[in-house]
Amino acid sequence: MSQSEVSSMRPPLVPLATLIGRELRSEKVEKPSVRCGQAALAKKGEDYFLIKPDCQRIPGNPSTSFSVFAIFDGHNGISAAIFVKENLLNHVMSAIPQGIGREEWLQALPRALVAGFVKTDIEFQRKGKHQLQIFMLNMNTGETSGTTVTFVVIDGWTVTVASVGDSRCILDTQGGVVSLLTVDHRLEENVEERERVTASGGEVGRLNVYGGTEVGPLRCWPGGLCLSRSIGDMDVGEFIVPIPHVKQVKLSNTGGRLIIASDGIWDALSSEMAAKSCRGLPAELAAKLVVKEALRTRGLKDDTTCLVVDIIPPEHSVLPPTPRRKQNMLSSIFGKKPQNSMNKPMSKLSAVGVVEELFEEGSAVLAERLGKDVNWKTNSGLSRCAVCQVDQTPSEGISVNSGTFFSATSNPWEGPFLCTNCRKKKDAMEGKRPSQSTALTT
Ligand SMILES: [Zn+2]
């Protein structure tokens, strides 16, 4: 076929299927790609991590894909860390209503994370109690173990982080602004948490040695844990709660880098130091460099685990470097959702890579975290527990405005329906009934 023949031909009609295919592909292209690197050095061998880049919101539908990255820093054994790694994602997903779209799923996620964390803690304690009966109070079987959890869900440009304990997740955005997406639940550093634990019946103090000399960080007694939130820890009062701090942000289309790591990193490096130590390098190498830098600074004092996750704009293969922004541009990189499209300063901020903050809540009160506005009734007239998703008749559990299980004089429960078991857990977390550990020994 000669050149003139080709140019004189009329363009063929494009079949509809091809057009739809193109549309689907271009939609796909607009999604960022996610690349992860991991590095670790073990001292006690109690750090665990989870990398699941290929989850699907609707099984079998690749367009509903999302990814999960998590760190579990265990203490007093490894069974809590392993149990959470194996079960938490399923428990979170089971708390998400069926048949909802992507926007609804992102909105439902913070609440589902709270339910999933609490359910995982209840299940672990139930399993531990069972072991306890089998092994006749042999404390070396691991049922006193606990773990921090930093659990990151990435769907498109939206990043949702839920955490208990002190394994941090930081965000390094293009332009060199570093921000913390988690809160440290350490009694030493968190006044609010100290007050909450004390009000719920715990004692906060340092370890006493050498005739009354106080050493080390602030701990919670009984148990001696330095953290105010964790999963597991059956030997500690139930005011050490598994209710996570949750933060959800939407990145600009320049992407960003997450560094998720156990305290082996953060006791050695500030957020800025960690981000700076690996900037401009691919995720796989970056994780190794962060661990190396922490080791160089402090030596191997603790388990040290690091995940580096790059959220990369579609047309790039690695996170693109961008010029530094002027320092005085804004004090915080987080911008609130613009109220209307006429919000000109907001669109300017978007242009320089501002991160849109969608959600943040850290309350340890379950009623404030599960919401009242959800219909928990099933089609069969039963009520579904907001935490464990078990169906019960309303008379078996508690619903809006009923009193607590233990004390009729306490404030009424204002959250959605809870089954008997989860209601007991709620009251124990608020210090309104004896904790699981006390109940075990009586
Ligand atoms: Zn329940």
From TrEMBL:
InterPro entries associated with the record: PP2C, PPM-type-like_dom_sf, PPM-type_phosphatase-like_dom
CDD domains: PP2Cc
TM ranges: none
Gene Ontology molecular function, alphabetical: metal ion binding; protein serine/threonine phosphatase activity
EC number annotated for this UniProt entry: 3.1.3.16
Catalysis performed (reactions): O-phospho-L-seryl-[protein] + H2O = L-seryl-[protein] + phosphate; O-phospho-L-threonyl-[protein] + H2O = L-threonyl-[protein] + phosphate
Keyword Manganese: yes
Keywords recorded for this protein, A-Z: Hydrolase, Magnesium, Manganese, Metal-binding, Protein phosphatase
Enzyme type, top EC level: hydrolase
Keyword Magnesium found: yes
SMART domains attached to this UniProt entry: PP2C_SIG, PP2Cc
Start and end residues of each PPM-type phosphatase domain: 28-311
Cofactors, names only: Mn(2+); Mg(2+)
Gene3D superfamilies per the UniProt record, alphabetical: PPM-type phosphatase domain
Domain of life: Eukaryota
PANTHER family per UniProt: PROTEIN PHOSPHATASE
Recorded family membership: Belongs to the PP2C family.
Protein name: protein-serine/threonine phosphatase
Organism of origin: Macleaya cordata (Five-seeded plume-poppy)
